[in-house]
Amino acid sequence: QVQLVESGGGLVQAGGSLRLSCAASGRTFSSYAMGWFRQAPGKEREFIAGISRGGGMIDYADSVKGRFTISRVNAQNTVYLQMNSLQPEDTAVYFCNAVKQPGLTSPLFDSWGQGTQVTVSS
Questions:
Q1: Is residue 88 within 8 Å of residue 120, measured between CB atoms?
Q2: Which of 66, 91, 113, 120 has the least CB density, counted as fewest CB within 10 Å?
Q3: CA–CA dist 64, 3 (Å, integer)
């Protein structure tokens, strides 16, 4: 199992952008499909975006399609989430995790990192 550390969150006005990073330890990062999830206050954690091991398959939740872009650089053991046109309803703690294939939407590991807080003001 890889260790994952999320970063890049912050406070942004509606319509703004942020790029989140998820750095993985270990030499097996490229063996895992990866995904981003988020959890808003009082809500369950939800799937946001997933990317296959080589990056050839990608899936997004309907709520972020056209605004968010997931990518990965296996040589850097990092997966990114570019978030554009942010809205107050995007406010949440964002987490990364490996995801199951096929489908790319279900988390693989039971343990989660600290996540990174994204707050969008109106």
A1: yes
A2: 66
A3: 26
Taking CA atoms, 63 is separated from 29, 46, 57, 59, 66, in Å, by: 27, 11, 19, 12, 9
The secondary structure of residue 50, as a DSSP letter, is E
The span from the CA of 75 to the CA of 85, in Å, is 29
- How high is the mean pLDDT of the chain? 95
Is residue 66 within 8 Å of residue 86, measured between CB atoms? no
pLDDT in tens, 31-87: 999 999 999 999 999 999 999 999 999 999 999 999 999 999 999 999 999 999 999
Q: Hey, what are 72's tokens?
A: 């990965």
Do 59 and 41 touch, CB atoms closer than 8 A?
no
Q: Which amino acid, residue 77?
A: N
pLDDT at 26 over 80: no
Q: What is the CA radius of gyration of the chain?
A: 13
